[in-house]
Amino acid sequence: xxxxxxxxxxxxxxxxxxxxxxxxxxxxxxxxxxxxxxxxxxxxxxxxxxxxxxxxxxxxxxxxxxxxxxxxxxxxxxxxxxxxxxxxxxxxxxxxxxxxxxxxxxxxxxxxxxxxxxxxxxxxxxxxxxxxxxxxxxxxxxxxxxxxxxxxxxxxxxxxxxxxxxxxxxxxxxxxxxxxxxxxxxxxxxxxxxxxxxxxxxxxxxxxxxxxxxxxxxxxxxxxxxxxxxxxxxxxxxxxxxxxxxxxxxxxxxxxxxxxxxxxxxxxxxxxxxxxxxx
Length: 279
Prior knowledge:
With 279 residues, this protein is an alpha+beta fold.
């Protein structure tokens, strides 16, 4: 995987590598000094884009990153079925020696994940009859659906409720992940994409996808292990980073009409008026 995924900047952040005066290297989602270098961006592109003066010292190559991220043995104590480290590379800033390679970075991220997956979280998941893999998978979905901390338990409740009643998850980020795996995602999710044949496509296949689709943070892990107690089955974006939740399809359809159909209709109307007003 990309270092962006290794560093779990899957929420839209970019990953920067910065040499520090003390000889360490910091991997973060923002530049930390004048020598910060953009290592890569999040949408699956295998490229490097410099952001300022080039940082000194070796940098893990894409091949090294991919090889390190395939070392599933690092999490077999938690997830015997893991074939790679997707979902288990904890998103945080890591300061390492400038000589550190991809294997060292990955080991640090997995070690941090082990520490964040507390016995309390594992017990809460087990009480809901979730394996660690299922917990991390649900948490990764929550991570991709909302960046708002107060919404994460609500999003988790929607998918928990759907799983409980056998309702398809119909989660867009799972389709995007499926498309990214085969290099078919261009930044826009089309209606036809919802029929893409992949076990990760939760529009076509019931239940949870086969594994995590992103690296969940602590808040998403907590939300997946302890979802809010609601009757919600649906949610839709308010177009401001937040969502409106509903328990019934009829209420959801009204919300879609308000926050999607009417919102974008008014937006297009305003754009046409602004264009017409120009000299």
